[in-house]
Design goal:
Strand order of the largest sheet: 7-6-5-3-4-8-9-19
Shape: globular
Radius of gyration: 23 Å
Strand content: 15-25%
Number of strands: 27
Largest sheet: 8 strands, mixed
Helix content: 25-40%
Structural class: alpha/beta
């Protein structure tokens, strides 16, 4: 299709052609500290860090990283929940010239080891918590990692809370060896605050290796440059015409190791001088308390977060009057969730967008105060084109309302996959990024997704790859065949369901299989449902087929919704 029909739906004053400055990411923080030195940058467990203090700590940590050998070409991992150390070390690694590699705290030990080796990560930053350190200590012993930078939550708490943490939370903390492979965070930020200046080419230098399953389910490191990420931060920030620079309060409940939160919660908020209220993980009661106490104005989330909030039995007791915009991503947003949430909290807009790891991530968003079409992922953000192409011939562009593969052109599109030219060539054709998602564009430029070619399951915004789950299940000696699919879930969007055939003369229960899988899968990957069958659908050539199972499950879900309405799935498996 020709032209850009979406332009008439753009926010007032926003020009698709407006210039967007590509800049090294540390400059975002430096510029914010110059404009709003005494404004809060981060709030965590009662302690606030001003922009001046954040920049000082980043400079100190950058000096420490350089003392550890960090420079251009050195990859440093972050294996952290949301905490000030994540933000400080993220910008410090980049200021030192290095590249950040994000690691999910939900990963199992084999997944961590595989990503460390593939990414050639040399240094890892983590916490001494028993939930984190022991896994990474094992990876240190078995991989090319040579240094762990280990911090404690007490390092970033007020003196009184730090003392209380050490006295009453010591059972949560691991013993950390005192040797050359372990460096304390206190040492890292104790080397001075005059790091050697590094010249960064924003368009060429890779800022972050962000791992994704892509179209095959095999994790690949998307090389996101400083330009990709700084531009997407600006695109996201300027899309909201109500954003008041230096004044907004951003809820930081989404994990910063995920590209959605890295850009929207951390980089965009920092660019605009916002205060990020950090939560190590989303907990409903605590999130509502923080939103009320700190007068949160912006809340990015996934549909399951909004569902949990609106189902809180005492929602009215929390003062959410400051909240104005919620941004939903990571999974399709049910229309009923949007309507109910906006009705419960007057004046709030829940806005859905779309993006990919490979595009930093945002490419499409619904206008916040303009036309929002039911079921649509919105219109292309400025500087970005969405093109629908023939699935079999990407050179052929599809006309309006014709279904094809969604492709993206824009300055936020990745440089390519780390050490994987073959995979890069499959998804980047000329200047187009193939998303693998199937959809169409209407006559006004709104994009609709109708199917996903990927088998990937989106569990509350986290990527789960059926192949990984299937391989873990196959390790059980009683399993003959298994197929894993995503099934609809009114709370998480999707959850993994395993269909299992047990070998003859063997017995296996769902509880036994779940217990076995706990040592092989991350929590988000665990099947929430397990169904035993005598046989599984197969294609004509004998391959296990998922299509029939997907159709069965969707029909059952729709019938249940019609009869009973949405029923949230409680925590637990099987």
């Amino acid at each position: 299709m020709s032209g850009q029909p979406w332009l008439k739906h753009y926010p007032e004053g926003l020009d698709w052609h407006m210039p967007i400055e590509a800049r090294p990411l540390p400059e975002i923080l430096e510029n914010a500290a110059e404009k709003w030195p005494d404004a809060p940058h981060m709030t965590f467990m009662g302690r606030s860090f001003t922009y001046r203090e954040s920049l000082r700590l980043v400079r100190r940590a950058a000096k420490g990283f350089q003392a550890l050998g960090v420079k251009k070409g050195v990859h440093v991992g972050l294996y952290l929940p949301n905490c000030p150390q994540f933000v400080i070390c993220y910008y410090a690694i980049l200021m030192a010239g290095g590249t950040v590699v994000n690691f999910s705290p939900l990963y199992s030990e084999p997944e961590l080891l595989a990503q460390v080796e593939d990414s050639e990560t040399e240094i890892m930053v983590t916490l001494d918590l028993k939930q984190l350190y022991p896994n990474m200590a094992k990876v240190l012993a078995a991989s090319s990692l040579h240094t762990l930078v280990v911090s404690s939550l007490a390092d970033v708490l007020s003196p009184l809370k730090a003392l209380a943490f050490r006295l009453f939370k010591s059972s949560m903390v691991s013993d950390v060896p005192d040797n050359a492979a372990h460096v304390r965070y206190s040492w890292l930020v104790g080397q001075g605050e005059d790091p050697a200046p590094v010249t960064i080419d924003a368009h060429e230098d890779v800022a972050v290796l962000q791992y994704t399953g892509g179209t095959t389910g095999t994790p690949k490191g998307a090389m996101l440059t400083h330009a990709n990420l700084s531009i997407n931060a600006a695109q996201t920030l300027h899309w909201d015409p109500s954003f008041k620079q230096g004044e907004e309060v951003m809820m930081g409940a989404l994990p910063l190791f995920h590209v959605f939160a890295m850009t929207l919660v951390m980089n965009s908020s920092t660019l605009g001088g916002g205060n990020i209220v950090l939560m190590p993980k989303f907990e409903l009661e605590e999130a509502l308390k923080l939103a009320s106490r700190h007068k949160v104005t912006l809340m990015p989330g996934v549909p399951s977060m909004f569902t949990a909030i609106m189902n809180h039995p005492n929602l009215a007791k929390y003062d959410l009057s400051a909240l104005k915009n919620c941004f939903s991503g990571g999974a399709p947003l049910p229309l009923e969730v949007k309507k109910r949430f906006e009705a419960l909290i007057p004046g709030v807009v829940v806005n859905e967008g779309y993006g990919l790891t490979e595009s930093s991530p945002t490419v499409c968003v619904n206008p916040i105060y303009g036309t929002q079409k039911s079921g649509s992922i919105g219109i292309p953000i400025f500087g970005t084109d969405i093109i629908i192409v023939d699935r079999d011939d990407p050179s052929k562009h599809m006309p309006v309302m014709e279904v094809g593969e969604i492709c993206v052109r824009g300055p936020q599109v990745m440089k390519g996959y780390w050490h994987n030219l073959e995979a890069t060539a499959k998804v980047i054709i000329g200047d187009l990024l193939r998303t693998g998602d199937i959809g169409y564009m209407d006559e006004e430029g709104y994009v609709f997704i109708i199917d996903r070619e990927k088998d990937m399951i989106l569990v509350g915004g986290f990527n789960v790859f059926p192949r990984n789950v299937e391989e873990a299940i196959y390790k059980h000696s009683a399993v003959q065949e298994v197929t894993v699919i995503g099934v609809p879930d009114s709370y998480r969007g999707e959850v993994p369901k395993a269909f299992v055939v047990v070998k003859k003369d063997h017995q296996l229960t769902a509880d036994e299989l779940v217990a076995f899988l706990r040592g092989h899968l991350g929590k988000h990957e665990m099947p929430r449902q397990i169904e035993f069958r005598d046989s599984l659908p197969k294609t004509m050539v004998g391959k296990l087929s998922k299509k029939e199972l997907v159709e069965e499950e969707r029909a059952k879900y729709e019938a249940a919704m019609t009869t009973n309405g949405p029923v949230p799935v409680k925590d637990g498996t099987a």
